[in-house]
């Protein structure tokens, strides 16, 4: 196995210091790093010189120290004599091993203080001693005891040194099986203890650690479906009590999956739901089902509706302010998986296995949720997003009026004269959104309407505590004997969402009332763009009186909102 | 036609296959060090689906001897 340098890929240089012959691991590591899109340069320090290498990495790597230093070691390599004595029954030999560990840790601490790159330190596997390779059936194994004590001490020592990453050879070897990992032939012939499967296991772990440490392409958010993913069954059909979730299979597999989600949430991952369901049904499961491990407080957000899941996921990405490529999606339905793959291909999709007993393992095997170190920031992240969510929803529920009251809104209404005709004409000809009729007019036409006895051209300017909006509203009113007609009513879009239109039309109603008029009529001519104006007339006391035609008794129209101060122009 | 064993040794020793003969050995091939030998063991086992004993490995002191050892183990493609 070999890899070719990737010229445009980011370069990563790795130096490996091993207590055994680690060279056979190098091609696997190179290959794994290339697979990740990196251009690796991997060098191996002289055999079994870890402490020396930590004290003087320059010497170990001929003056060119790699960015990442990896220390891989076995207890029986570093401390052969005390290990042998310990298994022979000399309990005091353990203190010699501990002395050695202290020295090793001191060297790593010194390295960490002076070296800016990444340092990865091994957790050693259980020693393999040919002469002691007998499984103790009734008695405890002295090798296992030694291993536990050494690892426990080693982890305590590493905990005291900030900024070290770990590679756990013990768990890698256990996953392979110590019998399958060992190659006694190569050990005797070449002082090299492992089969390639172990070298590959170590290489894959190191490659993942290096990638995670660089922080690229991390999954930050897990989007999970509910029915037949978080629990067995369909809540809308089976009800809360009918779901498979609890101590017995298959419910137990879903419980374990939920435990994984909770653990991932604690590492700083956002856990979110996307489900085609009634939100109330799903939340009832969260609130009422005893076996739920995942709880509301673990969730950063959710979308429970009948929208396409890709759309919900896109919304979640934008709500959490992350990219789609930072999202993994888990669902039992091939249809949903395909829909999300097709429309949001950046999202990593994972389908619940047909045999749900394999679900928790399939999540572990995804390997995308690993973290090299959990920071307090990670743990806080979910809490922060939840707080932000509460603030956002507060903005929505603390009445809109409440918010507007603090804005100091002020509307000035007048009839257009020379000073305003240009701006009024401009608004008439360019306002598309809040515009009841979208009737365009030339300056001359506007001027004629303003000067005519049977029509009025109103304008409105607005301001709030942050400043002036300028001239933002226009109404053209034809004044008949018994009613006034709103030929044109428009508002610049920058003034929308403040109830200014309500204040404006109330003021026109007041003027009409002052001349003895009791009725306003209006038109709504729908265009492709004037949806914002569509509900204005029905919301303001107008009823349909014909095609596009509306009528309102002025006394039935809503009054000017009390948070808007209305003034007459020039007064 | 290329010889599968020369190809394998060329890969393991990182040399060109036409530099190799049945007489190639650690003594006349500087690339054939212990790391390369270790790598060759894995390559041979994977390629020919055999398991080599320590004795087999120690016998393979040249490509020709490796060929013979593999034939003895029933590998007839070498």
Structure characterization notes:
- The complex is a heterodimer of chains A (571) and B (78).
- Chain A has 571 residues and is α/β, with parallel strands linked by helices.
- Chain A contains 23 helices and 19 strands.
- In chain A, helix 5 (80-87) runs antiparallel to helix 6 (93-114).
- The termini of chain A are far apart.
- By secondary structure, chain B is an all-alpha fold.
- Chain B has a single domain (4-72), classed as Non-ribosomal Peptide Synthetase Peptidyl Carrier Protein, Chain A (Orthogonal Bundle), CATH 1.10.1200.10.
- Chain B has helices at 4-13, 34-48, 54-59, 63-72.
- The chains are: A alpha/beta (571), B mainly alpha (78).
- At the A-B interface, helix 10 of A face helix 2 and helix 3 of B.
What is the total domain count of chain B? 1
CATH architecture of chain B: Orthogonal Bundle
Structural class of chain A: alpha/beta
Assigned CATH superfamily of the largest domain in chain A:
SGNH hydrolase
Question: Number of helical runs of chain A?
Answer: 23
State the shape of chain B: globular
How much of the sequence lies in strands of chain A comes to: 15-25%
Look up the CATH topology of chain B.
Non-ribosomal Peptide Synthetase Peptidyl Carrier Protein, Chain A
What is the N-to-C order of secondary-structure elements of chain B (H for helix, E for strand)?
HHHH
Indicate the overall shape of chain A. elongated
* Residues in helix, % of chain B: 40-55%
Oligomer: heterodimer
